[in-house]
Amino acid sequence: MYDKSDPRSALAPKDAAAGPRTGLVAESQEAHFYDEAPQIDDATGKTWLLRGHNFVLAWSQARKGASFPRSGHVDEYAVLLPETGAVIEWNGQKADVPGWSIAFVPAGDSTVTLPAGGLMARLFTTRSDDLAKQCSNARGYDVPRSHIPEFSPWPEPRGGWKIRHYSLDIPKEEGRFGRIFRCTTMMVNVLDPFDGPRDSSKMSPHHHDDFEQCSLAIGGEFSHYLRWPWTTDMADWREDRTVTMGSPSALVIPPPVIHTTRAVGPQRNQLVDIFCPPRIDFSEKPGWVLNADDYPMPS
């Protein structure tokens, strides 16, 4: 359910379903990075870790000159740089990535260094078992989510493997939803910011059948509204929840929970949505994925 001014109102409608099966509903996973102890606190700075079904989010407040190596990393990962730049090295390549950018780093040995320190989000799949085990909610998926398909990476990028990075300094465009980038493992949507609270008469309650959404707040304050659908099994039922979070923070919304989010901070509110693997419906919209020429869809 979207307001007519929301670009998502143009998404192709899905066939009507008979209603959610039993045993689908799981708890939301949340982390208030600004108010919780980090999972890693060492010479690199502070890093908070939160997992979803398929991904691990690592939010770092890095010290000046901090380096973050990955050895024999299993698959491609994303690096979001909301403030300062980074130097990324992989397979003999070196890329100077400015702040307010997103980068994708191939599997293998790599290092991300922040010469000036600052904030950084890295997005890995849960195939990185060493990171998944350190998450604040590491036990949150002990009960498998059988309704979420097993993770499978998307096709390899055109032109072969290399460090790719993209500026987020992209103006808003009528009919396009946010600033969406994808790689073989992730889809990241850096949404258009709200200056002040969102218009409460133009909300967007909706649900996803079989994939999670992670909403990462990197500025401002947000209220997330969650409604668990009723199945025939009362064990699935939950009370409605409103989760109000400052920044930085992250909320993982499980399917098929109905959800919508309202920016409530008085100044600039900036949200980033994360999906693993990429979303088909967003990818099918012409012009929505800004690096679609580099990363093909599955055939």
UniProtKB/TrEMBL annotation:
Residues 1-21 are annotated as: Disordered. InterPro entries: RmlC-like_jellyroll, RmlC_Cupin_sf. This is 5-deoxy-glucuronate isomerase. It comes from Paracoccus onubensis.
